[in-house]
Amino acid sequence: MHKSIVTAALLLLVPAFAAVAWAQDASGIDSGDTAWLLVSTALVMLMTPGLALFYGGMVRRKNVLGTLMQSFIMIALIGLQWILWGYSLAFGPDHWGLIGGLEWAGLVALDLTAASDYAPTVPHLAFMMFQGMFAIITPALITGAFAERMKFSAFLVFSLLWATFVYDPLAHWVWGGGWLSDFGAMDFAGGLVVHISSGLGALAAALVIGGRRGRGMPTMTPHNLPMTILGAALLWFGWFGFNAGSALTAGSLAALAFVATNTATCAAALTWIMCDWLFQGKPTVLGAATGAIAGLVAITPAAGFVGPLSAIAIGIGAGVFCYLAVAVIKPRLGYDDSLDVFGVHGVGGIWGALATGLFASTLANPDGTDGLFFGNAAQFGTQVVSVLVAVTYAFVVTFVLLKIVDRVIGLRVSKDEEILGLDISQHRESGYTILD
User: In whole angstroms, what is the distance from residue 74 CA to residue 93 CA?
Assistant: First the structure.
């Protein structure tokens, strides 16, 4: 009798359990993928404070707080811009292949519990937030070009305009269903969108704002290299979320990007210090940190498309090309990119995007595309055109925006304020207290 009751109860419960299982399957949201993307989002967020430390150690002590502030405040400024209109412009419904509309402004038109078409196994909010961390760090990268000399008010206005008119359109073109995506451009995690845009924006900023007063003096040396090394370590750590997280799933593609990221970075750091050793006589700590960042930059567009040996080649190329850009080309051309944003992110991003067209292989990623070295010369041509587009657009629009801001409110602090330092002149604070 009791067995019959239990059996009947179980038969009644089976449809209920089946309904629950069906609802979970129908939603399409995978808890493992969601957890990985949320962790990756947090890792990418950590990169911006890491960047603050990386840059902060390389400036003079009187500008350390001003430099830290320029990166840190981006989390707040672009964090809100992304919610209010940035995400909609970058990933909202496509208009003519050029820009997303404002249909998703403020996220009011989104189903906040549903998955995204861009990442069908995670909640739309998770994808939105992950991409938002990319939008935050990209304008922060540019700050190294005008370190120690831009007014904080001008910096805020410029950064907001730059995110809206440079980053958001490029993100839409490449990742949001825009025309570069249709053209076949390959950019796994941001060589075009993040590094070329920030690197060329940095070059424009260095040219428009002009060099630091007293540039070339011994007092211009980094004031705290341990801080810079700590920042580089945090960037390296966070970059696993940046690149492997761009797989948007917790699977073999994320593992491929993770391995490629670390491998290229190791190769680039060693290559840079070997260049230091060869040309300067000594391997430097700053060179090791800068080389590591160059490797991280270069592997970013290729991370999900190449195998470990190709990653080594990309890292070696990053170490050589970025070293030459910083140590040879910049001194000859004479522009004052204070913390070598163009030399590392611009040149590294260009090399990485082109290298993707050389080394991409369906042996590494069956869902990807082969590059030139694996029999597909057309993909390298596509990458060349994509690089030219990103370089031209980022430089020209940034140049125009800087000129407008300079005309309206002025970009640069006064001579006395620059001599005093940004910490005191812009924030009325000091990074260090000297006790007698």
Answer: 26
